[in-house]
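Let us begin with a simple case.
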Amino acid sequence: MRNIQFLIFFGIVISIHLLINFYIFSRGLRTFEPGSQIRTIYIIIYWFLALSYIVGRVLERYYLCKISDFLTWTGSFWLAAMLYLFLIVVSFDLARLVNHFIPFFNKLLPISLLQKPYFLTYFVGAVVFLLIAIGHLNAIFPRTHFVNIDLEGKITNQKQLKIAMVSDIHLGTIVANIRTQRIVNLINATNPDVILLAGDIVDEDLSPVIKRNLGKTLTQLKAPLGVYGITGNHEYIGGVEPAVKYLEDHGIKVLRDTMIELVENVYVAGREDIQGHRFGGKPRKSLKDIIQQKNDSSTIILLDHQPAAINEAIQNQIDLMLSGHTHHGQLWPLNYITKAVYLVSWGSKKFENTHVYVSSGIGSWGPPVRIGNRPEVVVITLNFNK
């Protein structure tokens, strides 16, 4: 059943990928003269870029090598380029439609561009290339975001609790040793009391993580109260049991619909990913069942990868809910979609007595590119006012 769902899901994704690419390709092809050498070069380069991600990801499942890495990296950058090329091409098609009824191209566009439209293709390609390069630099240098939260009426022997929280590392071919080391160094530099990883720690394919021993870098994470994580949808897509075992073998305690007492009367609860049952997992427990040992003076910190059950957290009087998953769109303007889908797409918000923080994530999925948002380590200081 899981394999059938997996094939259906990726069949739909690949079909959409190919249709969008054909649309962009056909518009670019029109700008080159039939039979010209540059037209042939365009066809070869375009379809190499368009197919490289699919071929690279399939190849690395069977034979992880430099060729699979090159194809995956090339295709990953193309995914970001494809989004912006699609938006530009759609904009031009809409402009052409308007021009059909209200001619304005001859007045606004240079004659040389009208006579040699391939200049426009070159210009658009250069703009998108520059945009992707800037977005890549933004993606590989995360920031540290500090948040202070005051909690009243909680009984504990702590005055403060300093939490370093990250989500969506996506360890794998794209987020490998150098980038992971940078993430670990940034987390450790905050000197947290506890480190919480809010899901999608590994990408869906575990083989690059194992072969390159990326988990060894995670063992460098240091916090007096430990390192805890939860499952995300990508742990389930790739096979949750091997992923969890790998993480626990490398120093991360994975909370799976369980709760632990971190310090006196301060608990951390971790939920299974809400979509886990779609990829062969069991339906997750209700939040009420997970936190049944709490009392009114307890502080409950909840890790829930997708911010889809905020209302359930409010109903169960969770003090702090930490999530990720959204990447805040990762590539503008996709953040408008995540804002429409979730109560919180990124940042902190308080609902009644429940504080919610949704991280934009620290890694990236697909393109190693971020435009319109920043990757982050979130440092949350809980102040207990007795």
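The second case is a distinct protein. As before, the sequence precedes its structure tokens.
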Amino acid sequence: MQKIFLLFICIFLSITTFSQTINTKKLDSLFDILDSNHLAMGSVAIAKDGKIVYQRQIGYSYIDDNKKIAANADTKYRIGSITKMFTAVIIFRLIEEGKLSLDTKLAKFYPQIPNADKITIEMLLRHRSGLYNYVDDFVSTDTVDKKNYNYDDYLLMNNLGWLTNPLSKDSILNIIKNGEVHFQPNTKVQYCNSGYWLLGRIIENITHESFTKNVKKRIVGKINLKNTYVGKQYDKNKSKKQAESYFYCGEWNKIDDIYLPNASAAGAILSTPTDLVKFIQSLFASKLISKESLSKMTSFIDMTDSSIMNHFGMGIMTIPFGEDVGLGHAGDTYGEHSMLVYFQKYNLIIAYTINGNSNFLASNDIADYLFCVSRNIPFDFPNTSREYIKQSEELNQYLGVYSSKQLPLKFTFTKLCEKLFLQATGQHELETKSIAKNKFTIDDIHASMEFFPEKGELVYTQNGKTYLFTKDQ
């Protein structure tokens, strides 16, 4: 999730309002609407002044024909890239123990990675390595033989196989090693799962223990998180304490989500909103790392050549809500969405995990609703009108992945329920609106798109700036 795509649905006031209490009745009304209209399934926790003041679960953790298991406070959800906060904390713990430094070069551990002699631990933490992103980047068939890819790995990666099929650590390392770099280290910022996957391997190399054990020993056990752990392959024969992923299109449809070991330190942790609240409270109370380390973790460097990405610290990011800014992280897997954000100004923490989504509500919308209610800011409840506006098979010509030389993002267009969706690298899917032949808009972010299918091109306009994208072949 990046600043260019953040949505704001609150009616923000010019005069700051200070709410002493959380309007729990209004929150209940909101979640009643989400639940009864099949807009979302999931769990939420809100803390104010150090105490949990609201918790709610809606929907189901498991659906199989007539068998349904209702979500409860102990249901575990895939928190995706919020995992990166845990990874960064462990790295800083190792630094405090004198086993590593922010200036340590990647070459000390993985000299075979491109530019390893230039890439530091800090650059990996800040997404400034320039490395190939093994999650989102596409491998051209022209490079498979030249760069000695395992062809089975190539097929998995380029058919979203990494989401559902096991890849060995050596295979992922080989993919990162052979992938084409995006830029020279420390010259730009671009979200990169490969960096955090490597940080997880470095943690294992230094401690001689698995990333799973490090999370348990250095975080979970230290602050007594009861429902947080690194996920393994899902066992369908076990009790359904882990939420499965769904999308609503007339009914809740099962989504095949990622094979968690592939995500590792970049996104493999499962947790609950209440555990996430406790985690970030402990982090800012210096119970996990020192105040000095936290200060470094939450330092943000402006990048003049990539201003849309300057909100990354080290394992933490700024999350703007109107004129307010919180600290935390968002997380996405193929079917689940989560957010953890701490507003120091108000001593307010919002955490939610979503395992059921629909094309009538973006997960960012939920964050905005929660912030508005928590701050006593007026907002409009979700629109529950259900007008399935069918579009023709012409949508198929727009589907695919598009790249631009002007922006460090890839756009992926997919179709679901006869609607066209846009997902930018590391961000939530957004529904587009058809306004004319080959033309679409996303009104909430003031963006428009015009496709030129015969050329394989897309002209994307946002906030008065225009960018040319070309369809990857």
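The chain has a mean pLDDT of 85. The longest strand covers residues 348-358.
Keep these points in mind for the review questions at the end of the chapter.
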